[in-house]
Amino acid sequence: MSAQFTIPKTQTAWFYKPGSNALHKRTIPVPTPPPGSVLLRIDAAGVCHSDLHILHGGIPYNSEFIPGHEIAGTVVALGSSVDPNQFPVGSRYAVHSQNACGLCGLCRSGHDNICQAKTRLQIGLGHPGGYEEYTALPIRNLIRIPDNVPTEVAAVATDAVLTPYHALKKANINGSTRLLVLGLGGLGINAVQIAKAWGAHVTAMDPRAEACELALKSGADAALQKFPPRSLNFDVVADFAGVKSSFEMAQKHVRHLGTILTVGMGANITEYQNTKMSYKEMTTIGSLGGTTQDLAECLEMISKGVIKPQIEENKLNDVNDVLHRLDKGQATARLVLKASL
Predict the structure, then answer these.
(1) What homologous superfamily is domain 162-286 in, according to CATH?
(2) CB neighbour class for 210 (10 Å; exposed up to 12, middle 13-18, buried from 19)
(3) Which CATH number fits domain 10-144+310-338: 3.60.15.10, 3.90.180.10, 3.40.980.10, 3.40.50.1100?
(4) How many Å apart are CA 189 and CA 76, to the nearest integer?
(5) Model's pTM, two decimal places?
(6) CA Rg value for the chain
(7) pLDDT greater than 80 at residue 169
C-alpha cells in the first residue's frame, strides 16, 4: 500500500526578482500536479554558483522565478495518467533539471542535457526550482534514488556529481589518462573522485591550500597551488573554473594532441591562443550538465561508495545567508537547503 501524506494548501518559496541581489520570501499555493506529473515534496535542494551568477546579472532573466536546480525529494501525489506502480507515493527521486522535451532529435538520440525545445525552461533556471517546499514535475525528469543514498547527497548529485561525470565521460578518461583538474570547488573535488575511480592519474590545482588538501584526501595523486613555468603536458585538462586565467593555464599545460574540457562558466568570454591551439593541435570539448542516463549512473556510483560527495545542511529560510557564504568563498562542502530543519 502506498504511503499517505497530508499536503498543505500553501508553502514557503524564495523568488529571484530581476535587479535584486537577494532572494525574496513569499507564501504561495502548493501546486496540483497536471497529467503526467507528480507533486514532489522537496526534501533537499543544493546551492550552486549558478544562483550567484543569476543574482549578479551574469545569467540575465527578465522575470521572477524560484531558483534551485539541484533537487531531491519524495513523491506525495500523482497527476492523472501517472502509473502508481512505477511512481509510488512515498518513493524518493532526484530531479534532472534540464527539463527536456523528450521529443526533439537530441533527446531521442540520448542527449537530453542539450534539448532543443524552444519553449523549454530549465528547472530552477526559469522554471520553478528547489527553493520551495513542494513542486510539480513531469515524470520524465525523475530518477529513482537508491535506498542507501541519502536524499541530501542525491540532491547535489544532480549537478555537482552529474556535471563532472558527463564531462569526464566525454573525454574517455581511463587508466592511461594523465588528468589535470583546474578549480576545486564542489564539481572539481567530485571530478577527482570520478577520475580516480576510472583509474586516471589525477593532478588537482587550486590556489587555496585547504582545497588542495581536500583533493588529496579525495584521492588526487598530486595537488598544486601554483604551476611551474614549463608546461606539464597533461593528456586532458578539465577546467572547472571557466575564467580567462584558468583557460590560459589549460592551453599551456595540455600536451600536443591533448584535450581541454570546458566545464566551468565563471566568465562568459575566455580567449583562445590561436597559435598555441594550432601548434599543439589540441582539442577543446564543451560540456553541459549531463543526461538522465548519466544521473542514474552517478547515483549508482554513490550507492556503491565510489563517489562520496561532501555536503553541509542548512535551513531553507537561511538561503540568503548561505548564498552570501558561497559568494565569499566560505563553503568547504556542497551546501544543501532543507525546509525540515
Answers:
(1) NAD(P)-binding Rossmann-like Domain (3.40.50.720)
(2) exposed
(3) 3.90.180.10
(4) 34
(5) 0.94
(6) 20
(7) yes
Q: What is the pLDDT of residue 2?
A: 61
Instruction: Give the cell for residue 294.
Output: 548519466
Sorted by where each begins, the domain ranges of the chain are 10-144+310-338, 162-286
For 122, counting Cβ atoms within 10 Å of its Cβ (0-12 exposed, 13-18 middle, 19+ buried), the class is middle
Sign of CA dihedral 194, 199, 205, 210: positive
Mean pLDDT across 303-332: 94
Mean pLDDT of 143-163: 98
Query: 588537482: which residue's cell?
Result: 204
At 58 the pLDDT is 80
Tens of pLDDT, residues 251-301: 999 999 999 999 998 877 888 888 888 999 999 999 999 999 999 999 999
